[in-house]
Amino acid sequence: MVTKSEETQLNRLESQVDNGGGGAWEYLCLVRKLKVRRSDKVLKYGLSILNDSKKRSSLGSEEWTLYEEVAIAAMDCQSLDVAKKTVTYLSLASIGVFEVIRLNSYAFAGYCSWVDCVNVLRKKFPESKRVGVCSRVEKWSGVDLFLANDRGRLEALLLEAKGSWGEAEKAYSSLLEDNPCDQVVHKRRVALAKSQGNLSGAIEWLNKYLEIFMADHDAWRELAEIYVSLQMYKQAAFCYEELILSQPTVPLFHLAYADVLYTLGGLEKLQTARKYYSSTIDLTGGKNTRALFGICLCTSAIAQLSKGRAKEDKDSPDLQSLATAALEKEYKQRASGKLTESNKAFILSCLPNIDFIHFLFPTYFASFIGSIAQFYRARDSPSVLRLSWKSGCRVNHLDMLSCSFVSSQDAQKILSFLSSESFGFLPLKWEFGDGEEWKNKRISKGKKGGKKKAADPFSKKDWYVVKAPSGFTVKDIGRTLVTRTQGTKIASEGLKHRVFEVSLADLQNDEDHAFKKIRLRAEDVQGRNVLTNFWGMSFTTDKLRSLVRKWQTLIEAHVDVKTTDNYTLRMFCIAFTKRRPNQVKRTCYAQSSQIRQIRRKMREIMVNQASSCDLKDLVQKFIPEVIGKEIEKATTGIYPLQNVFIRKVKILKAPKFDLGKLMEVHGDYSQDIGVKVDRPADETMAEGDTEVVGA
Predict the structure, then answer these.
(1) Are 126 and 146 in contact, with CB atoms under 8 Å apart?
(2) Do the beta carbons of residue 170 and residue 162 sit within 8 Å?
(3) Which residues form the EMC2 TPR-like domain (predicted)?
């Protein structure tokens, strides 16, 4: 993060170099040190140094650093101004360098600057992975081109600059195989995924990167911003928590975390959001307008949610009054002419009506603009006010939104108020018209609040058959409803990972198993069939209560086990002591040493039984209580047991989804299906050569 002093120094040097005052090399060094993006300036002043042999020789070993810096800047700029030559496209795809080159005014010996920089670096460092391993030399226009088969980092950047995503991905993968801890290559893979719009892929690469470099604050922040753009607020909150733990004095992280908590909603999260808005104000010395608005919003929302509760929030009125006073003071300092009593009352009246972070997401900001339009609704001839976002704004939710009919005079007053210094960060632009070409469609249909036709809630839903795994006797366990596929909302996505709880008696057609409840999770949808897999087991409470009796010891044990197909389960075992044969004594209490031995045996048997088979075979052991009987036999010498059961099974971790394995679970192909029919005695076997079909 660039500090204010560093930014001031950078701007001073930049203006000095722009005005011809010298200091180009110092400016380039500062740009490289601060890691700021000034590609056009770097290209211009870097090439001016490289074109001057005296300046270039005075750099010493830093010359090669400048070559690399200029090459990256040229790739970032893509197209450059042409001086004294027309733009010429040359295809060099046949020799594996690039497809199109644009000549520019800073070309060396008539070819493109970044080709020259990479070529010089490759010639100087032929074995460098940072540039690319030199494998052959070819002539082009009388100049030696040093080409690389093994892609280096600069080679991969070249591929990325021209849009060869697949080749760039292969190059980065090969670089990571040689050096798995290369931070730059890891980050380039994230940038590559984002360039293609593959945000899920960017999240995956960032998570892998953070497993290695957990202290990279920029990576955590980037991951949080991606989660926010995908509206995955819980995951974004986790990222901001990590940032606050590592850098507790940065107010930006406190503010972003509070925004996310406020978006999630709920009384507890709103109270936590208010605390972090307060900490932001504390860290900034009360100079953060956004945090002051956040406290007002949180206080209003908490007051609405806590109505009727016995415990009242005594701090809310004081906080809101302090935040309001601070906002009023801020407006008086920055835009005193805009702060009238009506405007101030309007802001405070609108605050409770804001449901989300209006200043962060334009979709939610639309409701704020709508409330302004309703407040200033005019009686005179209205015109339509259309608001849209300025180009270049990092917003993907919507491009244009329209307000209600308001008069142009009052709307101009609203928008000039919003464009004041306190609201100047909003990337808005607006225009007025008669509304015929982009009139609100709802307004053209009739009055608001008209009678709506009663719609059948089941008309847009479909029934799907839930299929149990083949290990159970009954395959069709029921039907479930889901909304029919509409646009981007796919029905199968809504069905996946649904959990169904079914009695084992229904699955096995046996009432003796009615006390066991099997949990099945939907893994895939095939046509109208929902294929499920085992997701846990538990006992009914009445069964557990019936097992507990007087004069005996209850022994429990649990253990985490891993099956051969990489399912991690937590198994809970329960057992009760019983009287020995020919025992006269009424009680059968086990000693603590015996209980410890029995628990040890329980864990050993559960681990051995589960780790030696896959999940499908393990479920078959739960139905007839194979594990319980094994424990009962093994502990006879310690103390006799009765009613030994695996009472509960939880899936802690499941492997990556594999359709082939799921189909194996749902289709038992090891046995013949159907009824065998004997061949009639009068029918003889046809003799002849056998023919292999489908070989």
Answers:
(1) yes
(2) no
(3) 147-260
Higher pLDDT, 416 or 469: 469
Among 138, 146, 145, 151, CA closest to 177:
151
Q: Is 489 helix (H, G, I), strand (E, B) or coil?
A: strand
Name the one residue in this structure whose structure tokens are 């809310």: 316
What does pTM read for this prediction?
0.45
| Distance in angstroms (rounded) separating the CA atoms of residues 192 and 92 | 24
Instruction: Map tokens 């405070």 to a residue.
Output: 348
Most confident of 21-30, 76-85, 559-568: 559-568
User: CA-to-CA distance for 583 and 588, rounded, in angstroms?
Assistant: 9
d(CA 568, CA 530): 24
Name the strand (E) or helix (H) holding 541: helix 541-547
Structural domain spans, the chain: 358-437, 461-539, 548-666
Q: Where are the alpha helices (DSSP H) in 231-266?
A: 233-246, 251-264
**Six token digits for residue 549:** 């009796």
* CA distance linking residue 664 with residue 676, whole number of Å: 23
Query: Is the predicted pLDDT of residue 178 greater than 50, yes or no?
Result: yes
pLDDT of residue 537: 94
Q: Report the alpha-carbon distance of residue 521 to residue 500 in Å, rounded.
A: 6
Q: What is the pLDDT of residues 638-668, one digit of tens each?
A: 999 999 999 999 999 999 988 888 888 887 4
CB 552 within 8 A of CB 578: yes
What tokens does 188 get?
Answer: 């380039």
What is the CATH number assigned to the segment(s) 548-666?
Answer: 3.30.479.30
φ, ψ of residue 387 to 5 degrees: the values are: -110, 140
Composition of the chain by helix, strand, coil, percent to 5: 50, 15, 35
Calpha distance 114→78 (Å, rounded): 10
- The β-bridge partners of 651 are 569
Evaluate if residue 253 carries a pLDDT over 50.
yes
Q: What is the mean pLDDT of the chain?
A: 72
The residue length of the chain stands at 695
Strand bridging mode 529-539 / 461-467: parallel
What are 192's two structure tokens?
A: 């590559």
d(CA 296, CA 544): 52
H or E stretch covering 360: none
How far apart CA 378 and CA 385 sit, in angstroms, is 13
Through-space distance between the first and last CA atoms of the chain, rounded to whole angstroms: 65
- Pairing mode, if any, of strands 143-151 and 132-140? antiparallel
CB burial of 529-553 (b: ≥16 within 10 Å; e: otherwise) equals ebbbbbbbbbbeeeeeeebeeeebb
How does pLDDT run across 194-218, given as a tens digit for each residue?
888 888 888 988 988 888 888 888 8
CA–CA distance, 273 with 174 (Å, rounded to integer): 44
Separation CA 485–CA 13 (nearest Å): 59
Helix, strand or coil, per DSSP, at residue 386: strand
Please state whether beta strands 132-140 and 516-526 pair in parallel, antiparallel, or not at all (unpaired): unpaired
Nearest to 433 by CA among 389, 382, 388: 382
Contacts of 215 (CB under 8 A, 6+ apart): 246
The average pLDDT across 497-522 equals 91
Query: 55-82, pLDDT tens digit by residue?
Result: 777 777 777 777 777 777 777 776 433 2
In angstroms, the CA 276 to CA 279 distance is 5
